[in-house]
Amino acid sequence: MSNCVSVVLGKNVWSVTYTTQSICTLKGSTVELTCSYTYPSGYTVTTTLWFTKIYNEENYVSLLDDPDYKDRVKYLSNKTNGHTLTITDLRESDSATYMFRFITDQTGGKYFGSPGVTLSVTDLQVKVTTTLLSMTLTCSTTCTLTDNPSYIWYRNSKIVQEDSSPSYSVYFKTEDSFYCAVNGINSPAVCECD
């Protein structure tokens, strides 16, 4: 969840702190990012935004205005609870570094938090390792999924294993089809058919 909670300080302190610096999640899923920010007393925040693109020093593109995120970004804010950013239906092209920026009512009163949150979006693939009498199926991704997900293995569309193991073994040759799933997102099916 992207909750940016503001803290007004008496000193001249500007900061953005992210709860996590990297997230790996699945294509088609939803992600939420979290940060907190501080600024000196005497300022009023007038604009807040999350961005991945900067066209020049003063032209930051809010995700709300970025056509690559059209209808997939929800961004809510209020003075009491801060901010919430949610990106739905993630695509591999959403892999990027996300940063938060805020602007105040005074000249020069703006700040963005670097280095931001690195989001990696991956899909599920089944890798097959065969021996003479068995095969091991491994549900793999290009990065390590955040939050230690549970894996569900399907054989001919029926659940055969549910646990935290990304691997499933079959101890005889078969022409059945197999696929894995994480949080309702399925890998393509594989079949060791001759």
Automatic annotation (TrEMBL):
SUPFAM superfamilies: Immunoglobulin. Gene3D superfamilies: Immunoglobulins. It comes from the Eukaryota. InterPro entries: Ig-like_dom, Ig-like_dom_sf, Ig-like_fold, Ig_CD22, Ig_sub. Residues 115-194 form the Ig-like domain. Coiled coil: none annotated. This is Ig-like domain-containing protein. It comes from Hucho hucho (huchen).
